[in-house]
Design a protein that fits this description.
Blueprint lengths: L5 E3 L1 H10 L3 H7 L2 E4 H8 L3 H9 L4 E4 L15 H13 L3 E3 L3 H9 L4 E2 L1 H10 L6 H10 L6 H11 L2
Parallel strand pairs: 1-2, 1-4, 2-3, 4-5
Helix pairs in contact: 3-5, 7-9
């Protein structure tokens, strides 16, 4: 894997926050970056508690784009996703963590390594950080987060569950 940073989009950030597993990011990658638009999206709901969550996770660093106009190149994506891709370009990211299909397709065309929330959970299970993908996925679903059933089935299969 290249030496560049890991860059995270809002949905995986929310999911790990809901699970109380932001420590995954530190344990798996050290520091991770989020562009300002992702930080803004994350703080748009329950701002006070989420601001405290980020303050308690200093390994999650919000950074501005050097060239903000670069994000305009990604038609059809929300600003957070577009800034994840733009920051990935600017910083030669080794991994983008994005759940949304359209943004993942952009990232794959750009030759980025991409994973999502379920991929992080799989990596966490492989490294012994969680016991069960099924249990964590159930908690996410109970919290109202959408998980693709075919992707969840594949993740469970890979995890041997």
């Amino acid at each position: 894997m290249p030496d560049g940073p890991v860059i995270l989009n809002n949905t995986p950030l929310v999911a790990l926050s809901v699970l109380g597993r932001l420590d995954f990011l530190r344990r798996l990658f050290g520091e991770v970056l989020i562009p300002q638009a992702v930080c803004d999206e994350f703080l748009a709901v329950e701002a006070e508690s989420r601001r405290a969550i980020l303050a308690a996770a200093p390994w999650i660093c919000s950074v501005p784009l050097t060239e903000p106009r670069r994000a305009l190149a990604y038609a059809g994506l929300d600003l957070g996703e577009a800034e994840v891709l733009a920051l990935g370009e600017e910083r030669s990211a080794r991994l983008l963590v994005i759940d949304e299909r359209k943004a993942r397709r952009y990232a794959e065309r750009m030759k980025f390594s991409v994973t999502g929330t379920l991929g992080l959970l799989l990596l966490g299970k492989k490294r012994g950080l969680i016991a069960s993908i099924t249990d964590e996925a159930t908690r996410l679903q109970q919290a109202g987060l959408y998980l693709s059933l075919p992707l969840l089935a594949k993740a469970k299969e890979i995890a041997g569950e």
